[in-house]
Specification:
328 residues, MetI-like fold, 2 domains, 15 helices, transmembrane, cell membrane, membrane, transport
């Protein structure tokens, strides 16, 4: 009996020890899975790393915006007080009102909106046509025309602006909007070659069965494009339209060349003229405490419409970028 009891006691100790090992092993495995995850991108450490990267990146991009807003709402006492850095003691909107008047904001806003929408819509439609032709159709000298398209993308606009200015002058289009609109009506304009490449990339990835089925039903090439392929290109259309809108909205180079002495100018050119005027006055009379807030206020009024547009179209824009193959 004594020997039997001792053996039973030993077995219980072994079982208890194994149970503890199993329990410790389970806890260790759970801790490991929680920290590292079953997959490399599912662990807590990886998620913390991703959040650190995202917060750092967001800070880099948002810091100038926060500085802009903070500076433009400071009054004179906050601007000269070194203790006031980010948060002003009083919200002062006088600088914003002054920038509104200096930009003639209502008139410039509608001019910029109409001009940019017309250019973006033209570029989107006509670049889609060109991109489809390069992706799906066969025509003489196709490789040569693709090379010419890439040249327009590679060559900087500073090399081509002089002949374009001379042509506009010959046509009497200086201080008019025609030189800004006309290239877009031919599927070109600012970054037009890049938009054609985006559409070419998108149409090149679509299955050919759809086109063949439409052709069997008697559709010609135009009907295939507008009825079959163009509706599929919604992601590329959104991406190209938003890119075109934002880039043309912010562009002050081409308007500065063609609208030299124009009375009504887009917001981008108006902001550039105000900044140049402030710099000239600083060079002559020295800086004042309101110079920087005025620049910040004009910049804020300038970027406000694209920011609002991006807030409402962010989801479509991200989906479009993913589906057009711009990022992998």
């Amino acid at each position: 009996m004594g020997v039997g009891n001792a053996a039973t006691h030993t077995d219980k100790k072994v079982i208890r020890r194994k149970w503890k090992w199993n329990r410790n092993g389970t806890v260790l495995r759970k801790t490991k899975y929680a920290l590292l995850g079953k997959e490399a991108d599912q662990g807590l450490l990886f998620k913390l790393f991703i959040y650190v990267i995202l917060i750092d990146t967001a800070y880099i991009y948002l810091n100038p915006l926060f500085f802009m807003i903070s500076t433009m709402v400071k009054d004179a006492s906050d601007l000269v007080d070194p203790a006031v850095n980010w948060v002003p003691r009083v919200i002062y909107l006088g600088t914003l009102q002054e920038a509104w008047v200096m930009l003639d904001y209502a008139k410039s806003f509608f001019l910029s909106t109409g001009l940019t929408l017309a250019i973006a819509a033209s570029q989107t439609l006509l670049c889609a046509v060109a991109g489809y032709a390069f992706a799906r159709l066969e025509f003489p000298l196709k490789t040569f025309w693709m090379f010419c398209l890439l040249l327009t993308f590679i060559v900087p606009p500073q090399l081509t602006i002089l002949p374009m200015l001379l042509a506009a002058s010959e046509l009497g289009w200086i201080n008019k909007l025609y030189p800004l609109l006309l290239p877009a009506l031919f599927g070109h304009g600012l970054k037009g070659a890049l938009f054609v490449i985006i559409f070419r990339q998108f149409f090149g990835t679509q299955p050919k069965d759809l086109e063949e089925a439409a052709r069997i039903d008697g559709a010609n090439v135009f009907k295939v494009f507008y009825k079959v392929m163009l509706p599929l290109a919604r992601p590329a259309i959104i991406v190209v339209f938003l890119f075109s809108f934002v880039w043309n909205w912010n562009d002050s180079y081409y308007p500065g060349m063609y609208l030299i002495n124009a009375q009504d100018v887009p917001l981008s050119l108006g902001m550039s003229k105000i900044s140049a005027g402030i710099e000239a006055r600083i060079a002559e009379n020295g800086p004042t405490v309101f110079d920087e807030p005025i620049k910040m206020a004009t910049s804020f009024l300038m970027i406000l419409p694209p920011l609002v547009l991006y807030m409402f179209t962010q989801r479509y824009f991200v989906e479009g970028v993913e589906r057009t193959g711009l990022v992998e």
